[in-house]
Write a structure and sequence with these properties.
The chain is mostly helical. It is built from 6 helices and 2 strands; from the N terminus they run H-H-E-E-H-H-H-H.
């Protein structure tokens, strides 16, 4: 089954990413990718997924951006994709804490406070997935790449 999925992925990637990876002429077979190469492909597919999603919605607060960030106490950059409303809430939380108006909220506390916004984001993504074949293909590819990444970690 996994071989069929990998072959399917190779076909989908070669068809779907003509514009995304036009310099690459051979299909990608995920079994042949190292963990580093898988992570590079995951990043590329995530960027394309959220680019397409963001173009498909009008609500600015639901648009998702991916950025690298470095956790406090480390020098190792990590990647995070998050909606604009979460970025705004984190920034406001930090401003309130700096101004001694509130205690700093944990990521879990912010998620609880923003439950309605996350539900709205989930509904928007599901709606776009339902309407957009390309986004569904990107989603399937992303799942396969992430599954393979977890297998070899």
């Amino acid at each position: 089954m996994k071989h069929v999925n990998n072959t399917l992925l190779a076909v989908i990637v070669s068809c779907s990413f003509t514009t995304l990876i036009s310099a690459q002429e051979e299909p990608i077979v995920i079994d042949d990718l190292s963990l580093s190469e898988l992570n590079d492909q995951i990043e590329r597919v995530e960027d394309e997924f959220y680019r397409v999603f963001n173009l498909s919605i009008e609500e600015e607060h639901l648009k998702v951006e991916c950025d690298d960030w470095t956790p406090t106490g480390t020098h190792i950059a990590q990647r995070a994709c998050q909606p604009f409303f979460l970025t705004q809430a984190r920034n406001q939380n930090l401003r309130d804490w700096n101004n001694q108006m509130d205690v700093i909220a944990s990521p879990e506390q912010l998620r609880v406070r923003l439950a309605a916004e996350f539900e709205e984001l989930t509904a928007a993504i599901n709606s776009v997935l339902e309407e957009n074949q390309y986004l569904r293909e990107l989603n399937a590819i992303l799942r396969m790449l992430r599954d393979r990444s977890q297998e070899i970690e």
